[in-house]
Every structure is written in structure tokens, then in C-alpha cells.
Amino acid sequence: MNNKRKTYRVRRILYIGVLLGVLISTTMIGSTSLRSVIDFPSLVIVILIPCSVLSFADQWPDYLRAISIAMGNTEFTSKEYKASRNALRLSIRLFWMSGIIGTLIGFVLILSNLDSINSVGQSMAIGSLTLLYSMVFNMLHYGIFAKVEKELIYREHTS
């Protein structure tokens, strides 16, 4: 079991490294810098909305348990696995919705500032990057969801 956990950790580190490598290399190939891909208002929109709703829906502990399961902690009951899976389903939907909300905010900002070409670029960046961030967070959450689902299926078949 200990070797299995080490293998999972190595895979996670490689996955995150590849993801960051792709992000950095794509910004270096183009004429942009990494700073132009990082937008604080977009990150706030994408992270704040799902975290708030998960907290209001009292799903935050289940969500954190799902992250713990993905990190290799398997000392939970089947009921806790199912609750974690449901919290992840909700978080995936919320990340998509927050990306769409951020994109709509960007469009509204574009339409309200059509007279200034500099403001249009910033507004377009907020809308586009919010959707990009929500896609990245969803990719990560689909991986976590698959891990929780796999562990749940394994538990149901072995018990």
C-alpha cells in the first residue's frame, strides 16, 4: 500500500509539472509573458463563487474530503465517499458557472467601454481568462472526481 501511495504522489507531481510546463511554454512561444495570463479579478471570480456556494450548501467538508481522497487518504466510509462525490459534482458545475459569469461580466464591461480601446482590451481579458481559469479548474476537478469514483467503486465491489 505504501508503494501505491508513492506512485500516486509521483503521478500527481508529474501531472502538475506537465500542466505548468505547458502553460509556461505556451506563453514563452508567443509574444506574451506569463504575467499577461494571470489576471487577479478573473481568479477571484472563478474561485470565490464556487467556494462561497459550497460553504453555503454545507458541502465544504465533503469537498475537502474529496481532495484528501485524491491525495491518497482512503480511510473513509462509503457514505463519506458518496458525499464527497456529490460535493465534487456540485463544484464542477459551479466552476463552469463562475466561468460563464466572469465571461458575461467581461462582455458587459466591453459594451460599457466601447469608446476607450484600452478598456476594451482589459475587459476582454477578464472575460476570456475567467473562462480559461474555469476550464483549468474543471480539468483538475474531473481528475479528482475520477479518483473518488474509482475508490468508491472499488469499495462497493470489495465489501
Describe this structure in words.
There is one protein chain. With 159 residues, the protein is an all-alpha fold. The chain is 84% helix and 0% strand. The chain is flat and about 65 Å long.
What's the quick description here?
By secondary structure, the chain is mainly alpha-helical. Helices cover 84% and strands 0% of the residues.
Write the layout of secondary structure elements.
Elements: H1 2-29, H2 40-56, H3 60-70, H4 78-112, H5 117-158
Provide keyphrases for this structure:
0% strand; single chain
Taking all residues together, what is the mean pLDDT? 83
Shape field: flat
The count of DSSP E runs of length 2 or more, i.e. the number of strands, is 0
Q: Figure out the total of helices.
A: 5
Q: Which blocks of ≥5 consecutive residues have pLDDT under 50?
A: none
Major sheet summary line: none
Beta content: under 5%
Order of helices and strands: HHHHH
